[in-house]
Amino acid sequence: MDAITCSYCREACLISMGMVLILAIFVGFEVISKVPAKLHTPLMSGSNAISGITLVGAILAAGYAGNTFTIILGTSAVIFATINVVGGYMVTDRMLEMFKKKPDGGKK
Question: Taking the complete model, does pTM exceed 0.85, yes or no?
Answer without folding.
Answer: no
